[in-house]
Amino acid sequence: MTQAPTPTADTVRRLVRSLLGDGAVGAGGPDVRPAGAGCATWWVGSRHVLRLAPDRETSARLRREPRLRDLVRPHIGVAVPVAVAHGEWADGLAYTLDTRLSGGSAEEHDVSALGEADLATLLTGLREVPVRQAETLGVPRVGPRSLEALRRAAEGAAERLAAADEFDPARLHQLTPSATAQLAAQAGTAVLVHHDLKGEHLVVSPDGRVRGVLGWTHVVVGDPAEDIAGLALAVGSPAAVRAATLAGYAARPCLRGLWLARCDTVVRLAESLTGRDAGPLPLLRVQLRRAWEAILLERVTELREEDEEG
C-alpha cells in the first residue's frame, strides 16, 4: 500500500492559494495552522477550514459530505458548513474547503436550556430527513448494537477500572440482562443518525445556544439512540435526555441512548488505561462523568429509597 503524503503548511498554502486566488489570501499568502493534533484539518484565516483525507476510505466519506449537508440543512434548524471547494490534494485523496462557523464547542461552553431546545430541533430534523435520499448519496444502513453484549464488555472493563480506582462497578448493577432486553432497539425505527455528536462537533455560542453542527462524515441510517448517547457524552445525560424528550422520543430510546453512553465510556476509559484506545484520558474521564450523571427518574428513585430507609 502506498504511503499517503504528510501535508505541510506549504502544501496547504499552495492549495488554498490555487482555490481562493491571490486577491483573497493576500500577498503574504494565507494564514494556515493545524486545527488540533495531526495534519488532517487546518484553519485557513478566520473564515475557512480545510480538511484533507489521509486515505481512500475517508476520501469517499469526505466527497459525500457536501451533498449530505445540503440534504440535511433544510431540516435540522442549526447551521452546517458550506463547501467552498472540493477536489483531490494528492492522488486519490480528497479535500474540502468549508466555511468556518463562528462559536466555540460544547467542550468550551455549557449548553443552556435554549441550547437544549436547539438540540431537540436537530434530533427532530434528522428524523425527518428522507432516508431513501440519504441512501442514494451512499449513506450506509447500520443495524443497532447489542446492548447486552456492550453490558458484558462494560462489566469486565469496570473491574479493571475499579482496580485502578477509577470507577465503582456496582454502578453497572442497575443495567440487568432483563433491562437490556427491554431496551433493545425496535424494528422500523431507523433514521438518519449523525453518529459523531461529540462536544467538538457542536458549535456553541457563549450564551449556550447551539449554532451549528460539524463532522458529517460518519452519518448512517440506523439507531437514533446512538445520537442520544453522543449528546450524553457531549453535554451530559440530563441535558441529552431532555433534548431527546423535547424531540418526541419516548423513554425506551432515551434510556437506551443513556446506557449505550454509559457502557461506552467505561469500556473506552479502561482501554485507554491499557493503551488500546488513543483517546485522551482527561476527556474520557470527563465523558464518563457526564454519561453517569443521574437523570430525573433516577434521582426520584434515590429519594424514595432514602425515605424508605429513614
TrEMBL record:
Q: Which UniProt keywords apply?
A: Transferase
Q: Please list the residue ranges annotated as the Aminoglycoside phosphotransferase domain.
A: 36-258
Q: What InterPro entries is this protein classified in?
A: AGP_Transferase, Aminoglycoside_PTrfase, Kinase-like_dom_sf
Name one molecular function that GO assigns to this entry: transferase activity
Pfam families the record matches: APH (PF01636)
This chain belongs to the protein called: Aminoglycoside phosphotransferase family protein
Which species expresses this protein natively?
Streptomyces sp. SID12501
